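Quick one, tokens below:
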């Protein structure tokens, strides 16, 4: 009898040991996953936080610290690296509650960002951008441009007086915005910051004055409209500067299109009769640059205007494929036009 009790006790001890082992195995293997799935990270009211494309763990941590969502940004960076989200965080709008560095990092890891975007396209005119915001977001873009405070701080002192000229200091791109706030205001702030960091920094602080910048900006806008080929932009910029230095009329068709557009008429093709329009933007009739930019230039067009190609070309004519034939003299130019016309006829 005593022996039987001893055997039962022995078996019971083993059962308890096995159950305990399973319990602790569960704690080690499954509990963290269970806790992460069911635990609410952070406390208090969440805030909308916009994380832009290309932001690093450091910039995100600094932004969340400024928003009062985490007291220790260095600790947040540590956990973002630990959880492998410092370089893989997706852009968009996050709803984040205040919390410890680990809690905030877990929110960033588990949250699915809401993405609302505004796109500024290169080559668009002031009127076209204005219509874009009115039709899509029911916002008056011109009112935002009039406010210097709407721009990135480092850009405010170099803005031209006319609101329509200020579009050139917005870098074309897609920007994430927070719903419920002015999309136009957010786009202007983000795009002017991008311009300053990617273009303004290249020009250099010593050259950031209104007159010099407006000239470069206007050339960049002409280049943007004259060619879509990146490899030709610096060459065309060189032609523009060469003609300016010789006091030759620029004769840029895009300025004629812009002048007619100001009158509400859209030209799909520039004919000889269109060249007679009386406008300060008509570079066939008025020498020098137009009074301001005619569109929002891409970064490639900005770089072309800042670093034009050095050459002796004064003329160019467009080919069917969108590229151009460049000439140094009017005689060569007439020959290029003739050859180009023949090639077009032969291809039909």
């Amino acid at each position: 009898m005593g022996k039987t009790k001893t055997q039962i006790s022995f078996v019971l001890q083993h059962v308890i040991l096995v159950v305990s082992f399973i319990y602790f195995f569960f704690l080690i293997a499954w509990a963290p996953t269970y806790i992460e799935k069911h635990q609410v990270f952070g406390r208090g009211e969440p805030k909308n936080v916009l994380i832009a494309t290309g932001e690093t763990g450091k910039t995100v941590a600094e932004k969340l610290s400024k928003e009062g969502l985490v007291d220790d940004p260095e600790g947040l960076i540590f956990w973002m690296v630990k959880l492998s989200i410092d370089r893989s965080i997706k852009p968009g709008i996050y709803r984040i509650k205040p919390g410890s560095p680990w809690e905030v990092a877990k929110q960033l890891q588990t949250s699915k960002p809401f993405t609302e975007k505004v796109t500024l396209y290169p080559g668009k005119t002031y009127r076209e951008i204005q219509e874009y915001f009115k039709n899509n977001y029911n916002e008056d873009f011109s009112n935002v441009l009039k406010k210097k405070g709407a721009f990135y701080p480092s850009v405010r002192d170099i803005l031209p007086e006319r609101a329509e000229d200020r579009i050139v200091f917005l870098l074309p791109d897609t920007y994430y915005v927070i719903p419920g706030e002015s999309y136009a205001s957010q786009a202007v702030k983000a795009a002017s910051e991008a311009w300053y960091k990617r273009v303004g920094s290249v020009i250099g602080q010593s050259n950031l004055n209104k007159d010099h910048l407006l000239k470069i900006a206007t050339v960049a806008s002409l280049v943007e409209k004259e060619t879509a080929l990146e490899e030709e932009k610096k060459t065309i910029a060189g032609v523009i500067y060469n003609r300016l230095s010789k006091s030759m009329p620029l004769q840029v068709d895009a300025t004629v299109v812009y002048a007619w557009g100001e009158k509400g008429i859209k030209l799909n093709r520039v004919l000889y009769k269109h060249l007679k329009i009386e406008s300060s933007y008509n570079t066939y009739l008025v020498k020098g640059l137009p009074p301001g930019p005619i569109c929002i230039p891409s970064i490639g067009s900005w770089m072309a205007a800042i670093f034009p190609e050095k050459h002796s070309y004064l003329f160019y004519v467009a080919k069917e494929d969108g590229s151009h034939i460049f000439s140094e003299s009017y005689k060569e130019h007439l020959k290029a036009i003739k050859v180009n016309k023949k090639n077009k006829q032969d291809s039909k």
